């Protein structure tokens, strides 16, 4: 038994210091999961690099940037890629986070480990720490490669910067969201103590959390406002802006709802505009140059949530029977 867990003296000497003892045991226990995660990151990164090369060739053949390129030229691969990247945090939470402690509790491994010389807290720190580290590395690597693809060609890609397919998969948001949901999965697993139930509840939590996150996303930045004449077109520099709200305004600055004079006939509409003295459009928006600050703000909130959840899971499991 001791040989299986610790290996021969020569094997112990050959291992790097950081991969000895409990760390080595945790990695060995989860070697299949970590290997699959590593393969996912490697294959995903290669796929992104390949798709970027294809896009570069298509744009060069179309004469971009000298000529405008219709959006369909990008093809279906971009949509598939962003969809899969958007699913990554939830997949990690359900299949990596939820079973992490719950499987050991259900199978009795937790009781076996904690009866050895390793303290319960040290074992939990090792398990949770390596799980979150693997999540961070996977999310950061894929986010970095996708950001490298998206940023130079964003003007020809079908989604604007505030769409979830971009905002949540570039920069620090993807790893932060993955950490938050994975920490939630670990916590749910610790509380429910059953693998299947934990995975189902974690899946439901991920759907709800990402829905709430989508409603909260546009509050991460301070909206800007521009006023322009009623009959004028939206300034061209705002083509890439994300609309938060818009109104119409009178000469005295009083704001009215966008549809305040949406009458059934042009004559009635003109009469309404004249009666209220409406002369301007007022457009409230978020601009692309705010994206980085908004992403880091959101990532900070998600990371704080991940730390809180992981800390609670560690506290709860340290003080309750396993």
How many DSSP-defined strands? Answer: 4
- Helix segment count? 12
Which strand order do you get reading across the main beta sheet? 1-4-2-3
| Largest sheet, strands/sense/barrel | 4 strands, antiparallel
Percent range for helical residues?
55-70%
Structural class: alpha+beta
Measured on Cα atoms, how large is the radius of gyration?
26 Å
Q: In whole angstroms, how far apart are the ends?
A: 23 Å
N-to-C SSE series?
A: HHHHHHHHHHEEEHEH
Overall number of structural domains: 2
How much of the sequence lies in strands comes to: 5-15%
In the predicted model, the low-confidence regions spanning at least 5 consecutive residues are: 1-14
Average residue-wise pLDDT: 85
Structural shape: elongated
What does this structure look like?
The chain is 64% helix and 8% strand. The chain has 322 residues and is an alpha+beta fold. Strand 2 and strand 3 form a beta hairpin. The longest helix is centred in the first third of the chain and has 32 residues, at 31-62. The model is unreliable at 1-14 (pLDDT under 50).
Salient structural properties:
322 residues; alpha+beta; disordered N terminus
What secondary-structure arrangement, pairings included, does this model have?
Elements: H1 2-6, H2 9-14, H3 21-29, H4 31-62, H5 77-107, H6 109-114, H7 120-150, H8 164-167, H9 173-192, H10 195-216, E1 224-229, E2 242-250, E3 255-257, H11 266-276, E4 278-286, H12 291-319
Antiparallel strand pairs: 1-4, 2-3, 2-4
